[in-house]
Amino acid sequence: MNFQGTILLVDDEAHIRKYVGLILRQLGSPTIIEATNGEEGVAAYLRENPDLVLLDVNMPIMDGIETLRKLKEIDPDCVVVMLTSLANRQTIEQAVELGASNYIRKDTSRDEITTALTETIEACFGAS
Fold first, then answer.
1. pLDDT at position 33
2. Cα–Cα distance measured from residue 17 to residue 64, given in angstroms and rounded to the nearest whole number
3. Are 10 and 54 in contact (CB under 8 A)?
4. What is the pLDDT of residue 87?
5. Which residue intervals of 12-88 are DSSP H helices?
6. Which of 10, 13, 80, 89 could be cross-linked to 35 through a Cys-Cys bond (beta carbons 3.0 to 4.6 Å apart)?
7. Distances from the Cα of 115 to the Cαs of 17, 24, 59, 87, in angstroms?
């Protein structure tokens, strides 16, 4: 895969942003923009118009579900992958109902995260 789009990575934990950023760079040479909470994420989305958003569920100021809701109001076609360390059924169902393209647990292996992101990118943007 050689994904060269812009990715917005929204997570309040710096080590997670770094780890996921390393995985994203394996997918090609994307431009990665980081935000530390939902409010910053929405502002960065409006400013950068990224191709893909990776969005943590549990964050201060504005959580991922509310952020997803706002992003879909701004752009109903935005591609959002939810990231979380918690995977309760209600949260997953809510994210899917709001239009999340995928849902990945942070404790998933690096290979499985790479596969899930690759499949999401191919499904949403076509094989590259």
1. 96
2. 15
3. yes
4. 65
5. 14-25, 38-48, 64-74
6. 10
7. 18, 11, 25, 19
Query: Within the chain, which residues score under 50 in pLDDT?
Result: none
Indicate the residue type of 100.
A
Q: What is the CATH number of the domain that holds 82?
A: 3.40.50.2300
Q: Is residue 1 part of a domain?
A: no
Q: Residue 79, Cβ neighbours under 10 Å: how many? A: 22
Would you say residue 22 lies in a domain? Answer: yes
Edge-first strand order for the sheet with 31-35 is: 31-35, 6-10, 52-56, 79-84, 102-105
pLDDT value, residue 2 = 86
- Given a contact cutoff of 8 angstroms between Cβ atoms, the answer to whether 85 and 59 are in contact is no
**pTM for this predicted structure:** 0.92
Query: What tokens does 125 get?
Result: 């943007």
CB 117 within 8 A of CB 1: no
In this prediction, residue 90 carries a pLDDT of: 81
